């Protein structure tokens, strides 16, 4: 990945005459300058930054101006920051050439990290241009002075940004006589962002320069405690231990640094090799260590319990608990205090006054005015003044609930805008029209009122105020039978049945473009695993493949292996699906003809019997492959040298062709296999350990969580609010389907084999339904395996990807999917 590709996207967006919804033109110019910065073209980047600052035709916000000044003044560990925070985003841009410029910007916005990014390009980890520019030693103080000026201006514009204080500390840390100022600014940076590993690491370096090893040790421990994958902090900690002749701890730190950053400098790798050699039991260094004076620093295991790291750890745990509690408390939509519109009383009072005027002139009013009077009397005629005020509140609450939430969530304390007299009259007209329709519907003959509603829909309009009590509601229901002439509908009973949704209109595309790239998310730290950004990204995706999540959360997936389950519950029931083994993108019938019908016969067995079958299948496959290799070797092994190699390659090629063309050469499909599906793991006494392991998942993907609607259902829906296990051999298939009620679901591949997934976004379900019915199958109840070529010919996009061991697949709401196992594996899903 290089900055040129990114620059091309931003330049295209800048040249677009339309204004972007996400970034303004000046923000795009800022990002283009930043691309030059990343690419190493510092002179051009500085020119672009200064051009934006001096351009009087644009208005810069204080935040943006502070960012530009910080960019001009600041430098530091750019490569490390870029690698850890931007690489997954830029990889997403490069991995697909089908993304438009706007889609690239959206993808970057979705991956922004809270606390690090405000607008995705404003990254505080970008290095100081002036500090980083190559110059003569004599010019170095001048460059630092220039950087200091820019950073001070940035601090004045945005005093809440902890990164600015950190960069100032780095500048002063290079000057021997400004070490105290460096400590002061580092302290300010810690106050702004306590869990910043870069700041703690720099404090440790400064302490080490001041010959304060114990303070340096605590700072380095705080750095790696804030970010366990901070390679620079592990390296500096190793050097500290090495200087103090604690070589075992130093080696451990260097290895951690190498693990966090495999592309570490060769000097670090060479140092690890030397320490490993010298610390070997046969080395002379072991004997010399005994003659060294006692160590001054606590060992690595003891350092975590020092005062400052322990205090930081406690505060981080408290902060995490508070964040989790806020998440459990619910969305601000429900916790915000909302101010009702002030003109509601006035509107109702006007209607009452209008009713009184029409009553007073009842003998002279027209037919239309008489209808309006009847409508107003039905609404206000039988209530007194106190009831009017109560009705006002009820209608105001109902109107606000039905309309206000659809527009946007109001921030606590924001009042709704006032309404002018003209708006009141327009509202009255609409209310009059609506109430006419209601009156017509409610004034039906008695014979049309049936004991039960004609239809019921969850989307039907409610005809009663939300403040109605249970007793009042029951009284209304009794009138349907006892007094049908007084009965008024509680909800709209004339709702039409649902219809197929419209398929998104797209131009006819090439099949290659309809094979959409699957969103792949790399999770590399616990912070990323529990971030709200990951949750929002999954919520907004039709399907997402999350890699590294189970490893980062240290989930023991071996608890779901066949061996573990065999030890826990050998007699547990397993549903078996007998299927024919075929390639993932092929489905044929008994005669070898292409079909959408997925052959699958149901039976039942136990985990013990299926485990035996799974193991025998693996052993038989190994034996079969060995026999094929021996046969090929015996047939083509007579030659030697280059000729022998050529014949063997030809043999392998023909073997692959024979495998691929089996359905064409034979009238019968491939061999019959057994797929163990829908293994219920809901028994908390039997599978307590397994269910507890799944609680390590982020809350939005957890089986039981406050944000999971199925947790509050109060009823068991197998596979939805309970965990189900799937035991597979190569070729096992889960036919095409959507989850119950189109809810989202989670699937984890336990391994060791892989699974191949095919997904279609929910928006195209009606088009898929038409194809399924075309093949005389039922979308919801049938067992069908789509033909990808037919889907692409129908202009239906498809996601196709491989789920490896440990990968988590998030299936979005209503996403149509079907799965094929390419190896021996187990899966858990809910």
TrEMBL record:
The chain crosses the membrane at residues 72-94. TPR repeats lie at residues 231-264. This is JmjC domain-containing protein. It is found in: Nucleus. Residues 636-646 have a biased composition (Gly residues). InterPro entries: Corepressor-Demethylase, JmjC_dom, TPR-like_helical_dom_sf, TPR_rpt. Belongs to the UTX family. Its main location: nucleus. It comes from the Eukaryota. Residues 634-663 are annotated as: Disordered. One of its GO terms (biological process) is regulation of gene expression. Residues 686-830 form the JmjC domain. The keyword Membrane applies. The keyword DNA repair does not apply. The lineage of its organism: Eukaryota, Metazoa, Ecdysozoa, Nematoda, Chromadorea. GO terms for cellular component: MLL3/4 complex. Keywords: Membrane, Nucleus, TPR repeat, Transmembrane, Transmembrane helix. One of its GO terms (molecular function) is RNA polymerase II cis-regulatory region sequence-specific DNA binding. It comes from Acanthocheilonema viteae. Pfam families: JmjC.
């Amino acid at each position: 990945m290089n900055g040129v590709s990114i620059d091309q996207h931003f330049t295209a967006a800048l040249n677009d005459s339309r204004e972007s919804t996400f970034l303004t033109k000046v923000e795009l110019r800022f990002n283009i300058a930043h691309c030059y910065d990343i690419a190493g073209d510092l002179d051009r980047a500085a020119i672009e930054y200064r051009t934006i600052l001096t351009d009087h035709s644009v208005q810069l916000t204080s935040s943006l101006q502070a960012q530009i000044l910080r960019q001009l003044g600041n430098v530091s560990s750019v490569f490390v920051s870029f690698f850890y925070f931007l690489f997954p985003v830029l990889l997403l841009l490069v991995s697909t050439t089908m993304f438009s410029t706007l889609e690239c910007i959206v993808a970057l916005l979705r991956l922004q990290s809270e606390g690090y990014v405000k607008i995705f390009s404003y990254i505080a980890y970008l290095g100081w241009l002036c500090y980083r520019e190559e110059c003569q030693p004599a010019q170095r103080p001048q460059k630092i002075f220039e950087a200091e000026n820019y950073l001070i201006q940035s601090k004045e514009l945005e005093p809440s940004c902890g990164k600015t204080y950190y960069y100032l500390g780095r500048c002063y840390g290079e000057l021997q006589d400004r070490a105290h100022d460096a400590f002061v600014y580092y302290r300010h940076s810690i106050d702004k962002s306590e869990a910043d590993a870069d700041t703690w690491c720099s404090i440790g370096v400064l302490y080490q320069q001041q010959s304060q090893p114990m303070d340096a040790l605590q700072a380095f421990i705080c750095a790696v405690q804030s970010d366990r994958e901070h390679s620079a902090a592990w390296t500096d900690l190793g050097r500290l231990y090495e200087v103090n002749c604690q070589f075992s701890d130093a080696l451990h730190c260097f290895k951690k640094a190498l693990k966090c950053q495999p592309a570490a400098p060769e000097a670090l790798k060479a140092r690890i090799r030397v320490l490993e050699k010298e610390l070997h039991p046969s080395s002379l260094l072991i004997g010399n260590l005994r003659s060294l004076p006692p160590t001054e620093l606590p060992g690595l295991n003891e350092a975590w319990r020092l005062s400052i790291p322990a205090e930081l750890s406690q505060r981080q745990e408290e902060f995490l608990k508070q964040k989790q509690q806020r998440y459990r408390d619910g969305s601000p939509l429900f916790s915000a205090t909302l101010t009702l519109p002030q003109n509601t009383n006035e509107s109702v009072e006007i209607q009452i006054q209008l009713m009184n005027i029409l009553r007073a002139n009842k003998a002279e009013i027209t037919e239309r005015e008489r209808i309006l009077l009847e409508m107003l009397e039905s609404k206000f005629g039988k209530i007194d003044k106190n009831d009017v005020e109560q009705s006002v509140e009820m209608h105001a609450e109902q109107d606000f609930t039905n309309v206000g939430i659809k527009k946007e969530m109001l921030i606590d304390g924001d009042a709704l805008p006032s309404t002018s007299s003209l708006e009141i009259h327009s509202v009255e007209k609409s209310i009059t029209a609506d109430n006419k329709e209601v009156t017509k519907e409610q004034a039906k003959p008695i014979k049309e009122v049936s004991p039960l509603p004609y239809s019921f829909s969850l989307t039907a309009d409610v005809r009663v105020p939300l403040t109605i009590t249970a007793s009042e509601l029951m009284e209304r229901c009794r009138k349907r039978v006892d007094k049908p002439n007084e009965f008024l509908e509680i909800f709209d009973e004339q709702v039409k049945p649902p219809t197929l949704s419209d398929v998104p209109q797209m131009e006819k595309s090439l099949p290659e473009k309809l094979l959409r790239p699957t969103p792949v998310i790399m999770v590399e730290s616990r912070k990323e695993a529990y971030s709200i950004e990951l949750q929002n990204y999954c919520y907004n995706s039709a399907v997402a493949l999350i890699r590294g999540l189970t490893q980062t959360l240290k989930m023991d997936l071996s608890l779901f292996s066949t061996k573990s389950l065999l030890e826990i519950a050998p007699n547990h029931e397993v549903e078996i699906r007998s299927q024919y083994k075929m390639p993932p993108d092929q489905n044929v019938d008994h005669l070898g003809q292409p079909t959408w019908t997925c052959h699958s016969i149901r039976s039942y067995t136990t985990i013990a019997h299926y485990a035996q079958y799974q193991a025998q299948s693996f052993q038989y496959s190994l034996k079969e492959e060995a026999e094929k290799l021996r046969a090929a070797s015996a047939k083509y092994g007579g030659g030697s040298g280059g000729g022998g190699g050529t014949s063997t390659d030809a043999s392998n090629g023909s073997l692959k062709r024979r495998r691929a063309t089996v359905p064409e050469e034979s009238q019968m499909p491939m061999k019959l296999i057994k797929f163990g599906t829908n293994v219920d793991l809901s028994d908390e006494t039997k599978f307590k350990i397994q269910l507890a392991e799944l609680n390590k998942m982020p809350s939005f993907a957890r089986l039981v969580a406050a944000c999971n609607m199925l947790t509050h259902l109060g009823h068991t829906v197998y596979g939805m609010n309970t965990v189900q296990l799937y035991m597979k051999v190569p070729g096992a298939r889960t036919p095409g389907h959507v989850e119950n009620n189109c809810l989202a679901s989670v699937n984890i591949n336990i391994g060791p084999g892989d699974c191949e997934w095919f997904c279609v976004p929910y928006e195209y379900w009606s088009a898929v339904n038409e194809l399924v019915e075309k093949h005389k199958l039922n979308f919801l109840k049938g067992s069908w395996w789509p033909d990808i070529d037919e889907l692409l010919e129908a202009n239906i996009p498809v996601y196709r990807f491989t789920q490896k061991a440990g990968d988590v697949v998030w299936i979005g709401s209503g996403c149509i999917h079907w799965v094929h196992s390419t190896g021996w594996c187990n899966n858990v899903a809910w």
